[in-house]
Every structure is written in C-alpha cells, then in structure tokens.
C-alpha cells in the first residue's frame, strides 16, 4: 500500500477523514453564479463543475436543460456520470437509468460546450473558492495545516 509523504495530504473520496471535505464530491451545498450569470444552488462543487460543461454562451435549450438535470443530481457521482456522457461502469439501477437519459440527450445533439478546454480551470477555481468561502467549518480545515502540508488532489477527476 502506498502512503503519501508526511508533508502531503492526499484525498479523493468525500468519506476520508478529515480531508474528504476537499473532494468535489463532498456533499455541501454552494450558491454560485453559472456562466450565464444566473445564481443557483448546487448540492456540491462537482455538480456545479459538471453542469458548466453544457452552459456556454452558445448553449442550446437542450444543453441548458441537460445542465439543469446535472445540477439537480443528489450526488456528485451522478452529476459526473451524466456529464461524461459515456456508459457508466457502475451496475446499480440508477446508473443504468442515467445511461438511458444520456443516450436520449445525445440523440438530441447535446455535447460539451466548445470552449470547455479553455474555461474549465477557471470554473473549477470558482467552485472551490466558493465552497470554502461559504463554509466556515471547511475553511478552518483547509487553513489549519497550510504551513506544514501540501495538498495533492491528483486523484480527483476533473
């Protein structure tokens, strides 16, 4: 088993303690403006990030509807499955249901926004900033060990 160096904090799962809060899948609601300037609530920062893939300035009504569907998911995992637009590896019924939904939206021409590669880093920065700006307990965890450790989020899928 690989252990991180003592000066690094590794995190991926929102279940890890105490640093699972750094995961974008951590279930804490954020209120944030989307790319179209509409302020909405998201169940986690992952849902915001994934919904933004379909919120470009030239988004079609179908893309906006799909982004709203992603935003409404109760877990970051479900939001990510929808946004990836690939057959889920999970065998749960919810994953199979989402696969049918993905196929329906793909048939309607829904794809990721054309400028995603250019904007995705700033979308993630906004999401993470707002997550910690809006939650005092999470901000305390983030700032607690900032001098003695380095964060390693290389295992987080963006």
If you had to describe this structure to a student in words, what would you say it looks like?
- The protein is mostly helical and 158 residues long.
- Helix content is 44%, strand content 9%.
- It contains six helices and four strands, in the order E-E-E-H-H-H-H-H-H-E.
- The strands form two sheets. It has a two-stranded parallel sheet. Strands 2-3 form a two-stranded antiparallel sheet.
- Strand 2 (30-33) and strand 3 (39-42) form a beta hairpin.
- Residues 153-158 have low confidence and may be disordered.
What strand order characterises the main sheet?
Answer: 1-4
The helix/strand class is mainly alpha
Portion of residues in beta strands equals: 5-15%
Task: Give the overall shape, derived from the CA principal axes.
Answer: globular
**For the report, how would you describe the main beta sheet?**
2 strands, parallel
Mean pLDDT over the residues? 88
- The counted number of beta strands is 4
- Helical amount: 40-55%
Q: For the CA atoms, what is the radius of gyration?
A: 16 Å
Q: Ranges with pLDDT <50 over ≥5 residues?
A: 153-158
Q: How many helices does DSSP assign?
A: 6
Secondary-structure element series: EEEHHHHHHE
Give the termini distance in whole angstroms. Answer: 25 Å
């Amino acid at each position: 088993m690989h252990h991180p160096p003592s000066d690094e904090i590794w995190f991926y799962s929102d279940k890890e303690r105490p640093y699972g809060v750094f995961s974008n899948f951590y279930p804490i609601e954020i209120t944030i403006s989307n790319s179209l300037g509409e302020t909405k609530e998201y169940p986690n920062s992952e849902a915001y990030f994934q919904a933004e893939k379909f919120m470009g300035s030239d988004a079609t009504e179908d893309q906006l509807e799909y982004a709203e569907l992603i935003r409404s998911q109760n877990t970051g995992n479900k939001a990510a499955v929808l946004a990836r637009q690939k057959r889920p590896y999970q065998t749960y019924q919810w994953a199979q249901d989402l696969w049918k939904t993905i196929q329906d939206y793909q048939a309607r021409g829904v794809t990721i926004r054309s400028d995603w590669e250019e904007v995705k880093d700033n979308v993630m920065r906004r999401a993470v900033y707002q997550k910690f700006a809006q939650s005092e307990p999470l901000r305390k965890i983030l700032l607690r060990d900032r001098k003695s450790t380095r964060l390693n989020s290389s295992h987080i899928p963006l």
